[in-house]
Amino acid sequence: MKILLILPAARHLRVTIDNPQVTRRAMLRFSLLPLTMVAALTPAEHSVQLCDENVCKLDFDMDVDVVGVSFMTALAPRAYEIAREFRRKGKITVAGGYHPTLLSYEVAAYFDAVVIGDAEELWPRLLTDVTAGKLQNIYRHTSLPDLSFTPVPRRELTESWSRHYATCHAVQTGRGCGHGCRFCSVTAFYHKTFRHRPLDQVLAELQQVPRNFMFVDDNIIADPDYSRALFSAMIPLKKRWVSQCSLKIADDPELLALAKRAGCIGFFVGLESLSKENLTALDKTINTEQDNQERIRRIQRAGIAVQTAVIVGLDHDDVNVFRKTLHFLQKTGIGALQLSILTPLPGTPVYDEFAAAGRITDKDWSHYDFRHVVFKPAKMTAQQLQTGADWLYNQFYRLDRILLRSLRVLFQAGPLAAFLCWRLNLTYRYDNKREGIVGADPAKQKQISILNFSTYKIWQCKVFTSKGI
Fold it and tell me: Which domain range does residue 257 map to?
């Protein structure tokens, strides 16, 4: 059979006949690991092609038999369009990924089959059923698959697009997360579990990738003993890499030093919020602002740059959160920011809680991209949350601040980390400019409103007094 695997793209990023230019967002694209992994799981008698709509035009007239689409919630509407068109042409359509796993009953109405969870075991079984004419609507595991049988992804299928990516060389040592953060789709997808691949298989794969690559684990130190063994074995390889990591690595000086010796130049860490109350409500490990500040500085002193993720719009956030967050990020010398407006993704406890309370205000999945307000905030208006988040993003990526933080990273982690920081910052700035993100600080606007009201009351009092009232 001929198989086409697709990564959909949002309308403003999609390559089409009318919009043939690939947007300059290479630093925000990496790996295509889900598609290259599914391709590697495909039996050799079938041919496989990939299409990432961010970098190439999707041809609905392609000569294919099976179309697989992997997508998250914000891309569900586009995925449904793709499935509708290919089904109209008589092709078999299959959905996989986060949204199909967490909202399978909805997705099953648009696709011929839905793969729930990991593709290992299920994808080969599905193709066998297609060949036999016995395709089922839902494929799910009775137990989580053993990652010992996970193949090396077929990276050669992305070679023609590699210039449009930060890297196509992504390696995964484990899947899932043992934490139970209520907003997190990773926790929901893997049911608060973590599994890792055999160390010898990971090291063998590392021999095949270039010197500069990326670990795409959700937390590279989820199993500290495994990470210690991995980093120790990597030292002779002289690789240079970045990864996602818990701030807890700063509490283990030996592990932090090993990561640096193994070639780490940057960590992406989930700060999420400066508020202890917010973190408690999200069931995320509680750290005070001072603890986080010191941990970040320990990582930086080890010669590793830090990028962070922050969520705004949590229930204990008011209009002061944007200015306070910007001040913290500037003070700690964070290299780059991934800012998210709280997005209650379907399948997570936060979504269930907000839906039950009637706080979901927007069911257009395309708005669930972490940049739109789709719920009723607790301590500010939706408009204040939107404009405040836009203001914070715009202010953080001012050109003068980009230059300053890139120089700071140069002295912290060296020229490669500084170069990556510079390019990543310019990419976020490009995105902001392209999408017209400006915003306004709602705390300042509130102060002006209060000042104007006070001035009016003083004026009113003087008028009444002068008239003898």
Answer: 169-438
